[in-house]
# Entry
Amino acid sequence: MTLQVSLRHRFDGFDLDVAFEAPPGVTVLFGPSGSGKSTVINAVAGLLRPDTGRIVADDWVLLDTDAGRVLPPHKRRLGYVFQEGRLFPHLSVRQNLLFGRWFAPRDARGESLDRVVELLGLGHLLDRRPGALSGGEKQRVAIGRALLAAPRLILADEPLAALDETRKAEILPYFERLRDEVAVPILYVSHASAEVARLATTVVALRAGKVAAVGPPGQVLGDVAAVGARGASSILTARVVAHHADGLTQLAAGEMPLWLPRIEAAPGKMVRVRIAAQDVILASEVPRGLSALNILSGTIAEIRRGQGPGVMVTLNIGAQRLSARITRRSAEAMGLSEGQTCHAVLKSVAVAPEDVGTGTGM
Amino acid sequence: MWGDWTSWLGPEEWQAVRLSLRVSFWATLISLPPGIFIAYALARWSFPGKQVLNGIVHLPLILPPVVTGYLLLLAFGRRGPVGEWLEQWFGIVLSFRWTGAALAAAIMAFPLMVRAIRLAIEAVDPKLEAAASTLGASPAWVFSTITLPLILPGIIAGWILAFAKAMGEFGATITFVSNIPGQTQTIPSAIYALLQVPGGEDRAGRLVIVAVVIAMAALLLSELAARRVARRVAGR
# Structure
């Protein structure tokens, strides 16, 4: 399913004017707070009525203010996972899960309760009340509840933002499974690059109510104009080769070996690794005597200068791209130019577990 | 002695107790649906005249009861505009009947009922209702599966409070429907009547005990119910 969204909405002191297309898979609306992400997702849900706009899922019109068509939320066939869970406190977990199923059309093809319970690991929680659940458990139930409504589209508004790091790490894999094992498209709001890198098939970067960039995550996250110089990063797809006794995991990014702190994925699995551009060091010759384990060789594809003291150097490494943010002074001293061979140095420990996602979602 | 416990109250007093229970039961039962509706409107909607509606609902709480009773008499008496219409079309006569006592009690107890239910509705997070609507529930289903169950203890609390208030209603009742034994003589009117008769203090005293016991029980029950609202909304 392809979702087409175009919206204009004016608040006090804020103009939202966005248009984008979300192909099947996970589309992440990415941007800092106040960029209009939540407004967009709430307009898609029907919880907010924009001044003007048109929202179409394939040929099904959810909103068309010009034609005077505004579908109320309960007729949109969505599953919305909210930041705060919003479980119904007077119902058991089982009743919460089955709430949407009740209202779904009889012929709707949805997941079965058994499968969702298995997918999200909810078996031991079914008879509890939401008040007795941890934050992570609540969010898992909220995901299951959305899924069981047999939705045509799943919406998620920063579903991890209210959780601590441990809980985030607990929930993210479930969204990855949703992406890879359930055929429902997902519109996901986030301000965290790690979530974008792990989940997105398409990223819509929003800044101050406008679309700054649309594209695959590797491209958008490397776009300084869309995400800012500090947020810029690359995504490498790599295959797990082996886990070693010293706590490291050996991967292969194309031909290049890559060593990272232990990853929870079996050998042979493909993973996505987000590498922040500011964590990458460049060398014009193969360096020796370094503590850093990863040296990835490639050719310079692009050097981009901005206003500040930094430049963004993007390397072709096999079929993949890796960006490094270095100072203009270094780039000039090293005499870097496009087409030149160059070596990227990366400390293994610079990659945090949250930057590594299983599955490629492609 | 226990075999004869019913004689602790005389037949006229029993009649007053039974009548009070009947009047209060019907008064609060009939006013419950409009009470929930108005509480919901005041808690959740914004509309022109909201403050006026709020004022009208609360008026019986601050107006002298005699005034309320007199206004009822003007409107619902046999020659009042509403009373005449009711009699002509439905054959319903309210003045000097127990049904009139029920109307007076309902109006006097209404603000208490609306206040309790409104507080319960305001404790329910509208975000829960929005979540239910995204899952496919129409507004009517959202109300009956989410809002109503969450406010049920509040409705019970409001109902009990209104019931106790109706049991004690005196001023508006006696003005509107007088004090006719067996017809309109409720517990408070009976106590009042007994106190006018020399030697009636004993019998009045027993009715006073009945009134105190009913009021205390109602207060405790409504407190318990209000606590359940808080627990339910917290999801434990």
Q: What stands out?
A: The two ends of chain B are 48 Å apart (CA to CA). Chain B has a mean pLDDT of 88. Chain B touches chain A through 24 residues (CB under 8 Å). The CA atoms of residues 44 and 122 of chain B lie 8 Å apart.
